[in-house]
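Worked example 2:
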Amino acid sequence: MNIKTNPVRASVRAAFLNVTLVSSVLLLAACAEGPTKDPGADRVRADLTTLQSNPELASRAPIAMKDAEQSVRDAEIPDVDPALTAHRVYIADRKVQTAKSLAQEQYAMDQRKALSDKGDQVRLDARTHEADAAKRKNDDLLAQLADLKAKKTDAGVQITLGDVLFSSGRAELKAGSAINLDKLVVALGQAPDRHVVIDGYTDSQGADDYNMTLSQKRADSVSLYLTGHGVDFGRITATGKGESFPVAANETAEGRQLNRRVEVTIQNPPQ
């Protein structure tokens, strides 16, 4: 018995065979080509190399740099899946840009710190220079006031003027006191930037209130002499301290004589 072939079925079958054949050919061709590398891998490698060659940035984000290097190596690995290689290139690019940003940020921080350190050194040098200048000036003052037995203290140069300035119980300067005070005027003229503190003291004889008033008047007398001979009034502070802070025992005549005094301190310049 003769069996007739359906023309439609034959046509469909032939078309299916053709599609299958073409697909097989394409698959074989793809397999024959092998894995490929995304062209973007060369770009991210070049970007990373530029970053690694920058002397200002290369060492400032070591962890991020190492991470970027590994990602670029991954992007350079060929693969049969184009989407995978493209994704690796994207990740590598992000890692390179992150490393660059972190390195730039660290560089800026290092620059600011260097400027700050330099400023600190400049200020330190200036303070050292000022301290040296102040020491030289104090040495000059000590030499000028050697006859008045000037001494160096933490506050500055100090002179103690004993009770030879005043008669007992009086606040008016004796005529002979001008010799010593004139030496002080000359020294202060050589140190116009220095403030002057004048403290008056008495012995313990007499009432406290009386001694406080007397010590203040004596400090004021010295202050008025100095300003009357050209020392700026604004440079001077005069204070009476009565019988406080004795330097010797008040039980003896010699001790009381030492306690009746005016101390003049030529202060160190402000820092």
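The chain has seven helices and five strands. Residues 19-32 have pLDDT under 50 and may be disordered.
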